[in-house]
Design brief:
The protein has about 260 residues and is of the alpha/beta class. The protein has one domain: Rossmann fold, CATH 3.40.50.150. It has seven helices and eleven strands. The strands form two sheets. Strands 3, 4, 5, 6, 7, 8, 9, 10 and 11 form a nine-stranded mixed beta sheet that branches. Strands 1-2 form a two-stranded antiparallel ribbon. β8 and β9 (about 220-225) form a beta hairpin. α1 (about 40-50) crosses α2 (about 70-80). The protein is globular and about 45 Å long.
Amino acid sequence: MGKKCSVAGPDLSPPEGCKKDHALSGRLSLWQPRHGYRFSVDALLLASFAQGADPAWRGAVVDLGAGCGVVGLALAARLPGARVILVELQPRLARICRVNVQENGMADRVEVVEGDLRSLKGHLEGDCADLVVSNPPFRPAGSGRHSPNRERAVANMELEVTLPVLMASAARLLRPRGYLAVIYPAERCVEVCDAMAHHGLRPVRLRPVHPLPDRTARRVLLLGRKGVSDPLVLEPPLVIHGSEGVYTAETARILEGR
């Protein structure tokens, strides 16, 4: 299941150029780069949506492309019975994950695996996860200019982790009837559903995310399940901001971890 996070050692100090932020009404402390990859509201929306698959989750959760660990750690904070594995390719971000695990006192049930999704067989056995989550790179390679910051570019664009690679990895890791929860741009919804189906994952819940009440959806939250034939449930839309530009009551509850 990968190497257990150390509880001491020189790599448990935050790398240079990081700052500490907080989430879930201060229940979660998160170091992240001042410049480069930084988590957004999307990550907390995904954690809340994934928890909805089973509010009393006590199984194994794997966060693929964990970044600073925000999605997996938010789930660990919200699901005290869950065991979580954070998988991150980029060395600095994997180190930040370890720092954040220690910072939040979760080293007894959260592990960090530093590695490529295409070569996890030496770290994680197949059929090991009840839930896989991912806030993956959104943009296909070649669809616009890369960020000059390599860390940010890899996090935002499919330079290392493509949609087929993500789905193949999730399908291998999930136990039968296990869940995959992802967030993607709305315009890629059909592509994501097709990729799930190609790897034996059935889309079972879909929730569009709208920035404002009168705007089209910018994101979709999508839940797939391995080896089932359940129908797809289209959920009511989640609207992020009201007409006054402040968070809606539902979004505020999600961001506060309620």
